[in-house]
TrEMBL record:
It comes from Mucilaginibacter rubeus. PANTHER family: METALLOPEPTIDASE M28 FAMILY MEMBER, PEPTIDASE M28 DOMAIN-CONTAINING PROTEIN. Pfam families: Peptidase_M28 (PF04389). GO terms for molecular function: metalloexopeptidase activity. Residues 210-413 form the Peptidase M28 domain. It comes from the Bacteria. This is M20/M25/M40 family metallo-hydrolase. One of its GO terms (biological process) is proteolysis. Keywords: Signal. Residues 1-20 form the signal peptide.
Length: 435
């Protein structure tokens, strides 16, 4: 048995080395640099949903698909997967607590419709004290889908202002699927005995689009492997600090890096042209405002035919495990991660389980839309989310990225996905969220 294991290990090393040679030739640093620089440039204006910037980004992605020779998804005449959503924009908001009016810059609303509250008993009042995590608390409020008055300690003034810049600018929902309103208020409130809110919004139906291309499978065309990242970001936001004049949230790491990976992998697999399963490469829209692009995609594709999803989110810098490493969210939910680890044996790169379980990252990215219906859909990332001070700021620019790290991570994904693409391995399914 010992001799067999040594021989097997040697064969694995030779196999990995052979594949690595192809990967290093076909996925090169110069092309990775060109793509991510283009997507995160100032002229993309931060790629916010419903802006000229995201249109420009979509056109660039389409041109890359076309040059690579990808085909549109079945039923589409082009690479765009078009759909519409209802955009609700605040017109006016007045808030008073305990009879005292709240200043306009200290309150904002997330709401799809106009409404009034006058001490309504079905409104939950949540206080985010200085010892709490503001982001965690507002995510809980969104998930609860309950009318909420969220009182935020002044300690979070800077973060409050940033969040107001993109959430307070308006909300987006599928028609007839609006969530309960949330009112955010900055200030200290010891005891809330009364509150009055009057919010007026205007609504309009607007177009959105994922950008997707495929490489049909050679022997298993009805089995799909998805490679994805989101190409939207926050657009123009308020500067992070006094004296800072830059207002473009370039989103170089979040998630121009992931979109770059998708385009690079599309070119790689098209050049190999030996995939047994059909490969779908998709750049999702509207991740930053609710993962709406991936939600729509999940409704259009037969989930039972999707054998795996590689969602790539923020791979711009070394992970907490060092260079040549990344982590996989929901590692324990299927054997997807173990398959990837096996395929990297004999290389310097390693995949690890998600080191931030308290962040609930598995359900915070576009993989969630397919994972919820049973697909082994996981996100691959290198972001040190617990200490990343550039996350959702104007500082997330190309100059802060480690392109060597991005390139090595893309190559590792290419190497580790090969047996899933070839049909040799099929990851176990993820338990459906409703189960």
């Amino acid at each position: 048995m010992k001799k067999i294991s040594i021989v097997t290990a040697a064969l694995l090393s030779v196999s990995a080395y052979s594949f690595a040679q192809d990967v290093n030739k076909l996925i090169n640093k110069d092309d990775v640099t060109r793509i991510i620089k283009t997507l995160s440039a100032d002229d993309m204006q931060g790629r916010a949903t419903f802006t000229p910037g995201i249109e420009k980004a979509a056109q660039f992605i389409e041109s890359e698909y076309k040059k690579a020779g990808l085909k549109p998804m079945e039923g589409n005449t082009g690479y765009r997967q078009n759909f519409t959503m209802v955009r609700s924009t605040p017109v006016s908001l007045t808030v008073s607590i305990n009879g005292k009016a709240i200043a306009a810059d200290s309150a904002f609303a997330s709401s799809a419709d106009s409404f009034k509250w006058a001490g309504d008993k079905d409104v939950q009042v949540i206080t985010v004290g200085p010892d709490k995590d503001f982001r965690t608390e507002y995510r809980k409020a969104f998930k609860s889908d309950t009318k909420t008055l969220l009182l935020v300690d002044p300690k979070f003034k800077s973060l409050f202002s940033r969040i107001k810049g993109y959430i307070g600018a308006g909300s987006t929902n599928f028609k007839g699927k609006a969530k309960a309103p949330i009112i955010f208020v900055s200030g200290k409130f010891d005891n809330v005995t009364s509150f009055d809110v009057n919010c007026e919004v205007k609504t309009q139906e607007l177009p959105l689009f994922n950008v997707a291309g495929i490489i049909p499978g050679k022997t298993k065309p009805n089995e799909y492997v998805v490679f994805s990242g989101h190409y939207d970001h926050l657009g123009i936001i308020k500067p992070d600090k006094p004296g800072v004049t830059d207002s473009i949230a370039n989103g170089a790491d979040d998630d121009a890096s992931g979109t770059t990976a998708v385009l690079s992998l599309a070119k790689y697999y098209k050049k190999l042209d030996n995939n047994a399963r059909t490969l779908i490469f998709v750049a999702f829209t509207a991740e930053e405002i609710g993962e709406y692009g991936s939600q729509y995609f999940a409704k259009q594709v037969d989930a039972d035919k999707v054998v795996a999803m590689f969602n790539i989110e923020m791979i711009g810098k070394a992970s907490k495990f060092g260079t040549n490493s990344a982590f996989i969210t929901g590692f324990e939910r299927s054997d997807f991660g173990k398959i990837l680890q096996k395929n990297l044996e004999g290389t310097a790169f390693k995949f690890y389980p998600d080191p931030y379980p308290d962040q609930d990252l598995f359900y915070r990215s576009d993989n969630a839309s397919l994972a919820e219906v049973g697909v082994p859909a996981h996100t691959i990332s290198t972001d040190q989310i617990d200490i990343d001070k550039l996350y959702h700021t104007v500082g997330d620019e190309f100059s802060t990225l480690d392109v060597d790290n991005i390139t090595s991570t893309i190559r590792a994904i290419a190497l580790s996905s090969r047996t899933i693409v070839s049909g040799q391995d099929t990851p176990t399914r993820v338990p459906k969220k409703t189960e």
